[in-house]
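Subject: Sanity check before I submit

Could someone independently write out the structure tokens for this chain? I want to compare against mine line by line before I put it in a report. The sequence has 107 residues.
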Amino acid sequence: APEPGVRLDWQAEGMRIRSVLFEVLPRQRLAWSLATLGGTGALRWTLEPLPGGGTRVTLEEWWNGITARILRGTLRRTLTRGRTAWLEALANRVEKAAKDPPPEGTP
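---
Independent answer below. Compare away.
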């Protein structure tokens, strides 16, 4: 399982991003820092069980720095596309798992 302090280097829409996990609560919350040329920020996913089944997924994202101010509109569109893709992939995976659950005893 991931732990706080784990470093991730990745790309989104051609932007190289360095992240460090800083909050890990299994099945509840995952948060990491974001650092790229001229900007820093963070992203947090929170999972909340709903009465009667289902889960609410809340994403919080914030950015600081000159790049975030100058490219506000572009960054907003890029991040919206990325978040939408992430949430669609998550929904697809959950729906697939509901149709074909893992073997008993699998975490």
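---
OP: Matches mine. For the report I'm noting this point. Residues 72-99 form the longest helix (28 residues).
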